[in-house]
Amino acid sequence: MKKVLVLLSLIFALLNASELKFATQKNVGELNPHLYSPNEMFAQNMVYEGFVAYSEDNKIIPALATSWDISKDGLVYTFYLRKGVKFSNGEDFNANVVKANFDAIFANKQRHISFALVRAFDRLEVVDDYTVKIHLKHIYEPTLRELSLIRPFRFIAPSAMIDGNTKDGIKAAIGTGKWIFVDTKLGVYDKFKKNENYWEEKAKVDDILCKVIPDPSTRVIALKTGEIDYVYGMGAIGLEDFVNFKDTEFKTIISEPLSTVLIALNTGANVTKDIKLRKALNMAIDKDAISKYVFYGTQKRADFFYPENVPNGKIDRKAYEYNPKKAQKMLIDNGYKLGKDKMLYKDNKPLEIRLSFIGTNAEHKAIAEVMQSQLRQIGINLILNADESTIFYKRQRTGEFDMTFNETWGAPYEPEIFMASMIAPSHADYMAQKGLKQKALIDSNIEKIAQTMDNEEKIKLAKEILTILHDEAVYIPIVYTTNKGVASPKIKGYKSSILKYAIPFDDIEFEK
């Protein structure tokens, strides 16, 4: 009789199991939390946790550390680890696990060198089984925020590492998170199941099946036929299709501004080193038209480096006005002449500027084509370099661009952690700013921001950096990005996140 009852309970559980079918563009990868490409960050966030997390109201909250202390000199962070936490394979989480993970991360230090915390890190001390201390070489105020990032400071079970390291991959994606990575089929799906032994509130659906559907139009059909229940994220669905789902039984959601799409102008290049040209370019681009015709109004025009919801991101400046006639006059007053072809020339040379973007990025391609048309109206020939991704990023590292697409990282990176990357020569921001006489000041301010615990001083330093970048017209802000989602009428509890690379699955459930 007992066996019959057990069998019936298993059958009942199977019949009532819930599986959320979610569309992805590609497989999520091996999910190594200590490396980057080709892992999908949303999936890493599902499986792995760090000391702390970043909340939807912009606060640092406990995760695998229940609390922490910061020494008076700001150089030592003591973390008190959560007891009783187990990895999904049953291994205990403790201080030795933390040490093994930090050893693995710093064995591959150069890969993470753009993170200021990596540069500031001195050593990790194990105090006891559930207490560790991070010692820094110098004060780095955003330490807790950087530890909340999806990578690299997340913890993997030591047994899942290859020879105690994660440099060359991992044996299995074994974390402490709400979800367990259980199965994958290349080009078809990735499957996650709810972690029944999770230390906090568990997810509301039992499984998530991430179906690989690369084509956005095919995802629309899959939604309508019930093959999938949900899509979410940048580029997850065509913008026209997204708009068409409004006022139907399907539910659409759109996030608050997450980051900024920018055009970085090379201040050291032959053409764009001219500040008057950079200012004219800022005045010649109709961002409202880009918002309307490229993004169907789902991403609003950007006038500044950051949207207003970014802490310490606001400056006391007016936006560059859209005024193509004034922009053209500014260039003519600067020595350019209009030819019979209505194009601008100086010293018998046409005004030509090259814009680099990844050729497979449809949104950037559309923006580039609109900009090309708009700049032609004032006599500028914008040459579009539709690069393969490796060439695109090589140009950014070497500074071989006049203009290039760039994007901020969003919470919790902004502004200090993102600004810290501006010091690294491997980034477009460094190369774009390199020709500025104030570059040394910018870099100095960035270092000072990271090394002060005084919030008022941080605000002052960040504002000075952003004001210089605005006054020098180093960037053309285009639009503020958003994540968009479409949900089947069968589900509820879906929502957007302030975190650009996270997908809030935990409260989703099926309608009764």
UniProtKB/TrEMBL annotation:
<dbReference type="Pfam" id="PF00496">
    <property type="entry name" value="SBP_bac_5"/>
</dbReference>
<protein>
    <submittedName>
        <fullName>Nickel ABC transporter, nickel/metallophore periplasmic binding protein</fullName>
    </submittedName>
</protein>
<feature type="domain" description="Solute-binding protein family 5">
    <location>
        <begin position="59"/>
        <end position="426"/>
    </location>
</feature>
<keyword id="KW-0732">Signal</keyword>
<dbReference type="InterPro" id="IPR011980">
    <property type="entry name" value="CntA-like"/>
</dbReference>
<comment type="similarity">
    <text>Belongs to the bacterial solute-binding protein 5 family.</text>
</comment>
<dbReference type="InterPro" id="IPR023765">
    <property type="entry name" value="SBP_5_CS"/>
</dbReference>
<feature type="signal peptide">
    <location>
        <begin position="1"/>
        <end position="23"/>
    </location>
</feature>
<dbReference type="InterPro" id="IPR030678">
    <property type="entry name" value="Peptide/Ni-bd"/>
</dbReference>
<dbReference type="InterPro" id="IPR000914">
    <property type="entry name" value="SBP_5_dom"/>
</dbReference>
<dbReference type="InterPro" id="IPR039424">
    <property type="entry name" value="SBP_5"/>
</dbReference>
